[in-house]
Amino acid sequence: MSPSYVCCLLNTLDPEQTGFIAVENFTSLAEHHELQLDPSKLEMLLALVQSNEHGHVCYQELIELLNSKRSSSFRRAIANGRRTLQREILLDETGLGVYKRFVRYVAYEILPCETDRRWYFHQSRLCPPPVFMAIITIVQIIVFMCYGVMLNKWVLQTYQPDFMKSPLVYHPGHRAQIWRFFSYMFMHVGLEQLGFNALLQLMIGVPLEMVHGILRISLLYMAGVVAGSLTVSITDMRAPVVGGSGGVYALCSAHLANVVMNWAGMKCPYKLLRMILALVCMSSEVGRAVWLRFSPPLPSSGPQPSFMAHLSGAVVGISMGLLILRSYEESLHKQCSWWVLIFSFITFLLFAIFWNIFAYELLGVQIPPPP
């Protein structure tokens, strides 16, 4: 909506320039369909003005809605409004195309509130598409296939010295090469690890990205990846790291924690059974990683990849992810808890940097020679 139209609209609704819009003036104008708004937005505007106890609505609430922005005050006004929105259950919508049906499915999978589901459903656009998780998964598959063809081996490739020579793998002997702390997410030790990560990324990451956007989900995923390698460099100092499990577990734990925190509002089918299956699969993957780490290695092979990236990714998901997924209605930079979390992550990052610079020599850690 153009600024000139908004200015003209405000002058019409508030001719005395008081900074507030009288409820009766706005309601009369809205009910006569003089506002150039889609029906769902007009419906929410009417609920907003009719829920106000002071008989007026401030400019900011109106402008935020006209510009498709959600605020906490607007959310509370809708939730507590005296006017009941029509078609409260989004599942009652009929005559939808394939894309809109998928958007409705995503809304019920991710969002715990019916008002939020309807808002997302009406505001959802095909562009931009959820490209981040798709690109990450495609690159991981391509890299795995290239190394599989080159080494002629598709399972437990860490036993191959040429696999560990890759410039993408994190190895404690190469920790000065900073890019390895996140590039390791493109390498996988076998088809089972790649398949597990790719499946979860697409099943959970794509719907999350559709709802919360590429910026928030990429931030959550990359934070899990970086936290995974940094945690390994502190707690398992002799081990290499491969695979995108840190980012995957950040996504999964954030989504599962959000479902638990909003259990009554989540309407996804068979949520208890799906929660149990997800926990069993994730626990099995962690158990497999622990077994590989401490099982006797083959002759001439070094330490096996660490499992600490899985656990640190889960911690990142529960802490940072819950905040990101909870704040669908508001901007992150407006929340005090967001800045506390950012400060904590920066503190951990600085500690990990100094640890990697000084601790290895001070503690006399015997690092296996890099390939």
TrEMBL record:
A single GO cellular-component term on record: membrane
EC numbers on record: 3.4.21.105
Reaction catalysis annotation: Cleaves type-1 transmembrane domains using a catalytic dyad composed of serine and histidine that are contributed by different transmembrane domains
Record bears the keyword Translocase: no
Role played: May be involved in regulated intramembrane proteolysis and the subsequent release of functional polypeptides from their membrane anchors.
TM stretches of this protein: 131-150, 181-202, 214-234, 246-264, 276-294, 306-325, 337-358
Start and end residues of each Peptidase S54 rhomboid domain: 176-326
Homology family: Belongs to the peptidase S54 family.
Keyword terms, alphabetized: Hydrolase, Membrane, Protease, Serine protease, Transmembrane, Transmembrane helix
Species whose genome carries this gene: Cyprinus carpio carpio
Enzyme class: hydrolase
List of catalytic residues: 245, 310
Name of this chain's protein: Rhomboid-related protein 1
Biological process according to GO: proteolysis
Subcellular location: Membrane
GO molecular function term, any single one: serine-type endopeptidase activity
Annotated membrane topology: Multi-pass membrane protein
Record flagged with keyword Lipoprotein: no
InterPro entries reported for this sequence: EF-hand-dom_pair, Peptidase_S54_rhomboid_dom, Peptidase_S54_rhomboid_met, Rhomboid-like_sf, Rhomboid_IM_Serine_Proteases
